[in-house]
User: What shape does this take?
Amino acid sequence: MTLSFGFSPCPNDTFMVDAMLHDKIVTSGFHFNPVIKDVEDLNELAFQGKLDITKLSYHAFLQLTDIYQMLSSGSALGFGVGPLLIAKNDMHDEEINESTIALPGKWTTAHWLFTLKYPNARKKQFMLFSEIEYAVASGEVAAGVIIHENRFTYADRGFVKITDLGTYWEESTGLPIPLGGIAVRRSMDDGTKSMILQMLRHSIEYAYAHPGEASAFIHQHAQEMDPEVLKKHIDLYVNTYSLDLKCEGREAIQKMFDLSTDSGLLVDYQPDYLFSG
Assistant: This one.
């Protein structure tokens, strides 16, 4: 069976799926057609129902539980992993509300968190995450929300941190922030979903057990090529929750659903939105 598999070029994704895609683990007759795109592009494809398996921002997933179920393995979720609002100089809340802010996509969790923190900020400009620092530096926007490996390099490039949106979430809820995860098409039979979940979990375990084997695949797609930055990225975004969400991870996702429902951003969702095999 051949299934389309969407994931981003970010090091945490390529680290997790390398063994699964390249037959380093048993795949039991499954083959995968990789679709490697920015996470917002994957979100948009998911809204069209075009992918069998895909990385999704949790913000997008909130709206897609009728089409997809999230797997209990493969998530980027944790403490100290949240998006950062940066600028060239410090800014007050009133300035942020009145200024143009760059965001890495309408359906990213970064946008959801920014809206949670700054509900009165209306001047939003969506762009590819790797273009945000350039837009801030050029003055095209006053500030921007950065994700991925940029959190490790923004200070060296002369930017200042205005808000750590992950810290804001953690202090508000006491929970890890769910950024993105791997989802499967809901219409698949449970046996297929279970096998995909097990393969993904084994792929992550293999990557941990064989450090360095995924390096070529990671470097082939990474935006930031500095080996130390790549290592920090993987160490931060691939963690114990990536193997299994556990009770705390499940509680964090439910909190996102509850907050979105209370604010009117979400009308309805499937109660069995998580597939844990």
